[in-house]
Write a structure and sequence with these properties.
With about 250 residues, this protein is α/β, with parallel strands linked by helices. The chain has helices at about 15-25, 45-50, 75-80, 105-110, 130-140, 165-170, 215-220, 230-245, and strands spanning about 1-10, 30-35, 55-60, 75, 85-90, 95-100, 120-125, 145-150, 155-160, 175, 200-205, 225.
Length: about 250
Amino acid sequence: MDVYGLIGYPLSHSFSCSYFNERFQNEGIDAEYVNFEIPSIELLPEVVASTPNLVGLNVTIPYKEKVIHYLDFVSPEARAIGAVNVISVIHRGKTVQLKGYNSDVIGFTKSIKSMLEPFHKKALILGTGGASKAIDFGLRSLGLETVFVSRYERPGTIQYGKLTPEDVKEYNVIVNCTPCGMFPHTNECPPLPYEAMDSRNLLYDLIYNPNETMFMRKGAAQGAVVVNGLEMLLLQAFASWEFWQNR
């Protein structure tokens, strides 16, 4: 039986395990999907060595960038993004090769493209982790200018406390790539001047649990268009499967 899995920490919020196992059962695929909750990326080789039937992995927080060091091949797109969330595990005799790809950018661009209007020209990306890099790549490929928003002083970023009402009107696409607002912390949201938002704002939250985050609710209250990350998640899962099958 082939084994697929997810590496990250923590994984209590994960959707992938139930999604793929249900798909395997429905389609008669002799495989199982397992959560590998590892507290350190240094444990990845141990996961691979102890799972001889492993053929594919997804990667989530906080390892999308750190995992690159452990891979034998990284696709040009994933290399340009600087983050990997799909790994194909190739067995060649006694040797094992790990090939890295990024399906986040595929899922995101396909899900947001139809929602973009001609007046959506600039975007704020909340967060600076691996997911935010894929979102930046995707938005720029769709022709938008982007700025990263961080809690900390970092080159090429703006801090939350410095965002003005004028900023959220000019950068009217706002994508939350942080875990802020994720279950069980559902009463939290990124600190933004929500009162300045209107119907020209598009708020996209990569979080899908809860279905509507505080970030989305506060934007919707001002008339903004809001969407969660469920469709992106499904689309990137489809793309993951394609990478695994075409290895």
